[in-house]
Prior knowledge:
Residues 148-289 form the DUF2520 domain. By secondary structure, the protein is an alpha/beta fold. The protein has 2 domains: 16-177, NAD(P)-binding Rossmann-like Domain (Rossmann fold, 3-Layer(aba) Sandwich), CATH 3.40.50.720; 185-304, N-(1-d-carboxylethyl)-l-norvaline Dehydrogenase, domain 2 (Orthogonal Bundle), CATH 1.10.1040. The protein has helices spanning 24-35, 48-57, 66-71, 82-95, 117-120, 140-144, 157-169, 182-211, 229-248, 256-259, 262-275, 277-291, 298-304; strands at 16-20, 39-44, 62-63, 75-78, 103-106, 125-131, 149-154, 173-176. The chain has an 8-stranded mixed β-sheet with strand order 3-2-1-4-5-6-7-8, sandwiched between helices.
Amino acid sequence: MTSSGIANWPAPARLTVGIVSAGRVGTALGAALESADHVVGAVVARSSLARDRVARRLPESQILPPQEVAARSELLVISVPDDQLTGVIAELAASGAVRPGTIVAHTAGAHGIAILAPLTELGVTPLALHPAMTFVDTDDDTTRLRSTCFGVTAADEIGYAVGSTLVLEMGGEPVRVREEARTLYHAALAHGANHLVALISDSLAALRIALSGQELPGQEFIDENAAGLPERLLGPLVSAALQNTLELGPRALTGPVARGDAVAVAGHLAVLREADPDLAETYRTMSLRAASYTRAPAALIEVLER
């Protein structure tokens, strides 16, 4: 599979961009591309929330049906949920609206360019451009792209040059990902980011249980709907742990599991089971995984396998 219909690369300074559709990722990328002097001419936005997002982030873009967006675009960004990607690609290919020579990039982490085959057969340049970043629907989404790595998969060196140029123009760092490695690449990112959210949420829940109802004079405890003492306690600790892990890997592990302290871990499990059995099971599973990075004594493993 090769790129076709493209001449005079690298890409011209200004491309007419179309986005399908106006979700958090698509509009963040659109704003970043406009900051690099490309023009987002049209966007698909079916819901009122999506239309509001376009008005806020891409106020000069037209809202049009997918076929009209595709027909107007030199760069077509398909940014839809993974389970909709195949259907959207098939519809665009069947419509005949995508012109040969169009750069078509999707943003799904787990897929490379094979999923774009129906469009590639029409003469487009296929790209997979996945920003390794979480998106929360604020202006920070676009700002963070300036320090974000993008997983780039392309058909050939021309495609990689095009994809890398677009990423660099948005302020990101292009990282080549092999077609066959896309799912593992995405699983690794999801494991680190999504499970971190669950882990920290569990820790905050346990802290709220531990601290509520026993406030000392002068100690303000904020309820669960606002940032307060639990967040202030945990924030510096986990921020330091994350930075240490990025720098040192498993050598950053500290605490009772790293020390092989079976008694302390058993105590943790006992109180966690009383507070929240599900949280206790997560702690046990994660402790077993942490122990695999250490020379854990048999006594600790025995506690964790009960």
